[in-house]
């Protein structure tokens, strides 16, 4: 699995190298104003693709946040792709200043994976869950429960990266992908779960406990 120990996500290297190179060129040409702008973009790229270590809580049934950000939805919804039922969903919105490396919510095996092309409307809107570009993983826990989490592209996001494939065994808190430049992650809990976060809460990927499985 990629990006497990690097301080900067590898997907950021091309941006950092490009902005850094152009900054150097402008500096050598003594174009100070443009060099400063490009230096700021270089530093922002390093900041955006940062990949900090996290303290993963222990507990067999715990579900942790897959993303840094703000909880913009907690409630019951109809999920027809896998559950064909009404289940509890938690949505976390990431702005451009949040860490965008995503983490696995709980231990389990990848039993289904999908990718859907789509639009790029504001990820904080309800319709983003159905019409935006997205990628989902369905995980089966050692106890046989299933949990779905979906990366959703946002207004300026143009690439979703998801590393695991069907059959992979994953651990809570592992890095599993990222979305570039503003986006959201939805988590669909199985029946009998207890959701502990509330609307408006700030989450830290891999650390904040969203709830517990049955």
Give structural notes.
The protein has helices at residues 13-28, 32-48, 128-131; strands at 62-64, 69-79, 85-94, 101-103, 108-116, 134-140, 146-153, 160-162, 169-170, 175-179, 183-189, 194-195, 202-203, 209-212. The protein has 214 residues and is an alpha+beta fold. The protein has 2 domains: 10-48; 62-212, Glucose Permease (Domain IIA), CATH 2.70.70.10. An 8-stranded antiparallel sheet has the order 9-5-6-7-11-3-2-13, with no helix packed on it. The longest helix has 17 residues, at 32-48. The chain is elongated. The two termini are 28 Å apart. 36% of the residues are buried. The mean pLDDT is 90.
Task: Using brief descriptors, characterize the structure shown.
36% strand, single chain, Glucose Permease (Domain IIA), alpha+beta, 214 residues
**Beta-strand fraction estimate:** 35-45%
The outline comes out as: elongated
CATH topology of the largest domain: Glucose Permease (Domain IIA)
Distance between the first and last residues' Cα: 28 Å
Secondary-structure content class: alpha+beta
Tally of separate helices: 3
Mean pLDDT: 90
Tell me the CATH architecture of the largest domain. Distorted Sandwich
Spatial order of strands in the largest sheet:
9-5-6-7-11-3-2-13
Order of helices and strands: HHEEEEEHEEEEEEEEE
Per CATH, the superfamily of the largest domain is Glucose Permease (Domain IIA)
How would you classify the quaternary structure? Answer: single chain
């Amino acid at each position: 699995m990629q990006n497990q120990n690097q301080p900067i996500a590898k997907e950021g290297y091309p941006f950092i190298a490009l902005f850094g190179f152009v900054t150097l060129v402008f500096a050598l040409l003594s174009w100070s104003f443009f060099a400063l702008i490009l230096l700021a973009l270089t530093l922002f790229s390093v900041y955006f693709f940062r990949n900090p270590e996290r303290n993963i809580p222990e507990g067999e049934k715990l579900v942790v946040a897959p993303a840094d950000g703000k909880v913009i939805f907690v409630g019951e919804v109809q999920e027809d792709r896998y559950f064909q039922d009404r289940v509890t969903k938690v949505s976390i919105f990431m702005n451009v200043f949040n860490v965008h490396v995503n983490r696995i919510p709980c231990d389990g095996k990848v039993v289904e994976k999908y990718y859907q092309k789509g639009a790029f409307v504001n990820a904080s809107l309800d319709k983003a869950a159905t019409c935006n570009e997205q990628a989902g993983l369905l995980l089966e826990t050692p106890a046989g429960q299933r949990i779905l989490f979906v990366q959703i592209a946002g207004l300026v996001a143009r690439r979703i990266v998801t590393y695991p494939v069907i059959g992979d065994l994953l651990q809570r808190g592992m890095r599993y992908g990222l979305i570039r430049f503003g986006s959201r992650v939805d988590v669909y809990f199985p029946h009998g779960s207890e959701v502990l976060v509330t609307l408006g809460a700030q989450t830290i990927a891999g650390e904040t406990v969203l709830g517990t499985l049955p």
